[in-house]
Specification:
alpha+beta; 7-stranded mixed β-sheet; about 30% helix; binds cytidine-5'-monophosphate
Length: about 325
């Protein structure tokens, strides 16, 4: 490794590091080649989103079951000879220092007082500000990639603290897969991988508008709060390897988003008319997901929606790092 560390390297306990990496075995694995490190950052969907109440800090108390899907951004990290973090993105408006991926790299540098420069190239495939967690996933991928590439002695608590600083969804992406997230989103309980055959294929439709998560949460009426019933029900069903009841795939932000953004309501109607059996909002939207048991049906609906000018991705649930074979 030719990276010049700008701090006096602590005595690294190789055993502890390998234990730590073993614990993270189902998180993204960075592909490292000399001076360059590639990592994938997967998108997520929310199977449920229960908003329990508003907290004193302005955030909302949540219970949400999330799953990573195989729509991903690719990040390429290089060690640079200056002492800066630079980020270039295929989506020009994301090429700036405020990008969560750049901020994640800065946090790691600050934590270890590193002066080593880092260049980040970000190939964006996950639509931005879409409810698919793309920016959060990019940030988590940078934390994990730097940890693995530079063998940094970051404990799970260090990683979690950095992740929470970057955003409520970032802790989930440190492990990915299927998880129940509570609190602001930072209390992550990883669930055993299980995915019902009814949802084998997923269409992700992104209406051509942006939705501000903060605005959606701010204007949410108290009547849309729930007590976490849906998330508990989905968790129990999936843990028992049962097919969940569709009415438990509930998103507490959906009613408000459909009412405020007619483009999202229209896209939902169009999906249903084209033959999607079920449609749900992911996160604060505007992306809608529709599950299918058969690829042919998913492709047929995708083609119809694309003919109407919609951006639609065909995807499936994925458990990152599980290798090429996936049981669901
Ligand atoms: O944490 P993050 O920056 O991703 O959150 C974006 C916005 O979403 C916050 O500024 C807040 O308005 C809202 N939010 C919330 N409660 C949460 C997560 C996010 O109110 N648990």
């Amino acid at each position: 490794m030719t990276v010049v560390m700008g701090y006096s390297s602590p005595m690294l306990d190789k055993f502890l590091i390998s234990m730590q990496n073993a614990r993270m075995s189902h998180a993204q694995e960075a592909r490292i080649s000399g001076n360059v490190c590639f990592v994938r950052a997967y998108a997520k969907i929310n199977l449920t989103l229960d908003i329990l109440g508003r907290r004193a800090d302005g955030f909302h108390e949540l219970a949400t079951v999330m799953q990573t899907v195989d729509l991903y951004d690719t990040l390429c990290l290089t060690a640079t000879s200056d002492d800066r973090v630079t980020l270039i993105c295929t989506t020009p408006e994301l090429s700036n220092d405020e990008n969560l991926a750049a901020r994640a790299a800065q946090l790691v540098r600050q934590h270890f007082a590193l002066t080593q420069g880092i260049g980040i190239e970000l190939y964006k495939r996950i639509p931005m500000a879409a409810g698919l967690g793309g920016g959060s996933s990019d940030a988590a991928a940078v934390l994990l990639a730097l940890q693995q590439w530079w063998q940094l002695p970051l404990s799970s608590t260090d990683l979690l603290n950095m992740a929470v600083t970057l955003g409520s969804d970032v802790p989930f992406f440190l492990t990915g897969g299927l998880a129940l997230c509570e609190g602001r989103g930072e209390r992550v309980t990883t669930l055993a991988p299980y995915w019902p055959s009814l949802m084998r294929w997923l269409l992700l439709l992104k209406p051509a508008i942006s939705v501000s998560t903060a605005a959606v949460f701010r204007s949410l009426p108290v009547g849309d709060y729930t007590d976490g019933t849906h998330s508990r029900a989905i968790r129990s069903a999936l843990q028992a390897r049962n097919t969940p009841r569709l009415e438990d795939l509930y998103n507490g932000l959906e009613r408000s988003v459909l009412e405020t953004y007619p483009e999202v309501a229209r896209a939902r109607d169009d999906l249903l008319k084209a033959g999607a059996p079920f449609v749900r909002l992911s996160g604060s939207g505007p992306t809608l997901f529709a599950p299918f048991s058969e690829l042919a049906c998913a492709r047929m609906v995708q083609a119809q929606m694309q003919a109407q000018g919609y951006e639609v991705h065909l995807s499936r649930a994925i458990h990152p790092g599980a290798g090429n074979v996936c049981v669901y």
